[in-house]
Design goal:
Blueprint (H helix, E strand, L loop, with lengths): L1 H8 L5 H9 L4 H9 L3 E10 L5 E12 L3 E3 L5 H6 L3 H15 L12 E7 H4 L4 H11 L7 E6 L7 H14 L2 E7 L16 E4 L1 H9 L1 H16 L3 E4 L5 H9 L4 E2 L8 E2 H14 L1
Parallel strand pairs: 2-4, 4-5, 5-6, 6-7, 7-8, 8-9
Antiparallel strand pairs: 1-2, 1-9, 1-10, 2-3
Helix pairs in contact: 7-8, 9-10, 9-11
This protein binds ligand C2E and magnesium ion (3 copies).
One magnesium ion binds next to loops.
Length: about 280
């Protein structure tokens, strides 16, 4: 119903927006149709403890199962959704689908597995976003401590005050809060530093730089030390090779995510994968 209301508000793709739609190869109408036909779903990518190899959780990543074009990654639809007021719809689809799936990997891992969900700062600026997230998690009988909300400062927040209010409420309830893409221009997070984030996620470009340049390595090591002093968990994303893994271990990073461990997988494949992995480590 909320989506219907939004669609009725939409004017056809305007010049500036049209360019971004065309560049992404999908028109706004196609994206809206995809939302209405329930073609968006959550894939899952595991996160693993560097010291032991155990899985500590997984991140839900949006995919569009297009009837003709196959699996479409977020690069093709997040920006147009943010630009056209549709990102909230994706946020709710992802929260509902990911949270509903979480019980399926239950106690498989020895560590209490956390589920990470990406939130656009645009959605976090909505009134009572926190209340609605709390409700979804409660309905699925999960504990807030099992959920980590990943925040990237890529979209201009409509209302920074609201973002902070929602985030502090969620944190007080016990949700984990993660600063995503740390090390890119998007993660200044000055405003958000007022919130007690629980996790720092190192962007994969930062990991790649640290492999190549001594200076990047020093900066990364200091960032990891800073996070530790702030009692934040550290996670490196984009871990693709054994040398990446070894360097992160050496620099004291706690967790890793990346193709070296596994690519994002469909929900069903993930449940099997995690069992095989935990049996092996
Ligand atoms: P992110 O949250 O930083 O997610 C990590 C991205 O890195 C994912 O791309 C993942 O597939 C990719 N990745 C993981 N390991 C590796 C690796 O070893 N090598 C390489 N080259 N890439 C790796 P993906 O799935 O295409 O998502 C891109 C971005 O889209 C995400 O970045 C996130 O910012 C956004 N996104 C994804 N799902 C959602 C969602 O449900 N809501 C919102 N608001 N944003 C989302
Ligand atoms: Mg993320
Ligand atoms: Mg990231
Ligand atoms: Mg990223």
């Amino acid at each position: 119903p909320q989506l219907e209301a939004l669609i009725s508000l939409h004017k056809p793709c305007q010049t500036k927006q049209k360019q971004s739609c065309v560049a992404q190869e999908f028109t706004l109408k196609e994206i809206i149709d995809g939302l209405r036909s329930n073609e968006f779903e959550a894939f899952f990518q595991p996160k693993c403890e560097l010291a032991t190899g155990h899985i500590t959780g997984a991140e839900a990543l949006a995919r569009w199962r297009h009837p003709e074009k196959g699996i479409i990654p977020p690069a093709a639809f997040i920006k147009p959704m943010e630009d056209n007021g549709l990102i909230d719809d994706l946020t709710w689809i992802m929260l509902r689908k990911a949270v509903a799936f979480r019980p399926m990997w239950g106690d498989i891992s020895r560590k209490a597995g956390t589920l990470s969900v990406n939130l656009s700062t645009q959605s976090l600026g909505e009134v009572d976003m926190a209340g609605r997230i709390i409700e979804i998690v409660h309905t699925e009988k999960l504990e807030p401590e099992q959920i980590i909300l990943e925040v990237t400062e890529s979209a201009a927040a409509t209302d920074v005050g609201k973002v902070l209010e929602n985030l502090s409420r969620l944190r007080m309830r016990g949700f984990g809060l993660s600063i995503d893409d740390y090390g890119t221009g998007y993660s200044s997070m000055q405003q958000l530093m007022r919130i007690a984030f629980t996790e720092l996620k190192i962007d994969r470009s930062f990991v790649a730089d640290a492999i190549k340049h001594e200076s990047a390595r020093v900066i990364l090591e200091s960032s990891l030390n800073m996070a530790r002093k702030l009692k934040m968990k550290t996670v490196a994303e984009g871990v693709e090779t054994q040398p990446d893994w070894d360097l992160l271990c050496e620099l004291g990073c706690e967790c890793a995510q990346g193709y070296f461990i596994a690519k994002p997988m469909e929900a069903d494949a993930f449940a099997d994968w995690i069992q095989d992995w935990e049996r092996a480590v």
